[in-house]
Each structure stands twice: as C-alpha cells, then as structure tokens.
Amino acid sequence: MIKIGICDDEQQMRKTLRQMLEQVLQLRGTDHQISEYGSGEELTAGISYLDTDILFLDIEMKNLDGIETAKLLRKKGMKGIIIFVTAYPDFVFQGYEVHAFHYILKPYRKEKIEEVLNQALNELKLSKEQYFVIEQKARIIRIPLTQTIAFSSDRRKVLALLKEETIDFYGKIDEIYRELPTCFIRTHNRYIVNLNYVTTLEKDRCILGTHSFPISRTFRQELETAFARTMLK
C-alpha cells in the first residue's frame, strides 16, 4: 500500500488535490491511503510522517510554512518523497535544501498531477526495492538491503546482520523471506543470506566473509543453484 500525505492549510485545495490523486491511483489500480493535514504543526506533531511514502506539501502556510515543515521532517528522519505545491514559482528553488522531489503550481492541472505522481511512484518503486521496512509500535525501521548480509531468527525475534551494524526486531522469518528480492535465499529454517556476500559454499556451511551459516539438506540444492547463477553474472 502506498501512503500519501497532503498538507495544506486550505481545505478546498486539499479536497481538490485528493480527488485528482485518487483518480490517477484508481486508474493505475494502486492500493493507497491518503491522509490530510491542515498545518505543518499538525503534520509534525505525530509520527505518521515516518511511513508516508509521498507527501504533497504546501509552501505558503501560516506559522510553520512548508519549507520549515520539510526541514523539520527531514531532521526527524522522514525519508519519503516530498512534492511541494505552491502558487508562487519563486519559492520552488528553496526545495533543494530538503531534497524535494518535484513541485506543482496552483491552480492544479490534472495532467501535471498525473505526470508528477507517476514519476514519484516509479521512484518509490526503485527505492522500496532497496529497503526492507518494518513497522513496530512507535517506530519504523528501514533496513538497507544492499548492506544486509543475512537475516537470522530466534523464536519471535529476527536479527538483520548488516556490514556496519546489527538490527533486531520482532517478526517471522517466513514472512520476511517472501518480501525480499531474489538475491536473498534461505540456507536453513532460521537463516536467510544475501547471495551477493556469499564467498564459499562448503558441505554444510555457507561462508560470507567472516560470517558462517549452517546449510540444511532442505535448502542445499536451491542454494547451490542460486549461487552458481550469481557466479555466471
């Protein structure tokens, strides 16, 4: 599901933008959830922004304007796409400081909304392929898959072994495996490894640099086939 936020202190503008977005998303068949915020203060007060994939943010808002809101969101850890909306083209260049993805001028044109939204969705697809995201209570964890060596499970907890750190969270290894890209493969009921880090396959061990994981008979043939395929690339 794609999570979209609209932050604008004009209710009619929020309504108009929401209707246009929903038309495009429905035509694409994209499962989505749209949340509205009437001010920068309302948006930054909670934590919903942390898992917002795409945020349409009005620049000219009272008190906390869009630029300052975006700076605060980035400081608090928001990684989603920010698209500024504004009636004044002169404000557009201020967006680079907060890594704004695009901007849309008011009044809204459906063609422009569709163009920018499709670009954002395509960008989002690429970025989501590089991260594994876990939502747990009051925190959202983004695990960079290109830096992930392996996942291991211990009852209800899962440990993600990265190049520079380890991250633990609650989850089921079966469910995690179904969501990972094809470069990840199981060696055992409790272990998933990133083939890009595998250096050696022994009879009953999978070696990833200084790390070693057991290979069970159930997964050995599939692992060997996948490893051989990576060697041919």
Structure description:
The chain is of the alpha/beta class. The chain folds into two domains: 2-131, 3-Layer(aba) Sandwich (Rossmann fold), CATH 3.40.50; 146-231, OB fold (Dihydrolipoamide Acetyltransferase, E2P), CATH 2.40.50. The protein has six helices and 15 strands. The protein has helices spanning 11-28, 40-45, 66-75, 110-128, 173-179, 217-231; strands at 2-7, 32-37, 54-58, 81-86, 102-105, 131-136, 139-144, 148-154, 157-162, 166-170, 184-188, 191-194, 200-201, 205-208, 211-214. The protein has a five-stranded parallel sheet with strand order 2-1-3-4-5. Strands 10-9-8-12-11 form a five-stranded antiparallel sheet. The longest helix has 19 residues, at 110-128. The two termini are 33 Å apart. The model has no long low-confidence stretch (mean pLDDT 90).
Please count the beta strands (DSSP E, at least 2 residues each): 15
CATH superfamily of the largest domain: Response regulator
CATH architecture verdict of the largest domain: 3-Layer(aba) Sandwich
Helix content bin: 25-40%
> Unreliable runs, pLDDT <50, ≥5 residues?
none
Protein name: Stage 0 sporulation protein A homolog
Keywords: Activator, Cytoplasm, Phosphoprotein, Two-component regulatory system
GO molecular function, one term: DNA binding
InterPro entries: CheY-like_superfamily (IPR011006), LytR-like (IPR046947), LytTR_DNA-bd_dom (IPR007492), Sig_transdc_resp-reg_receiver (IPR001789)
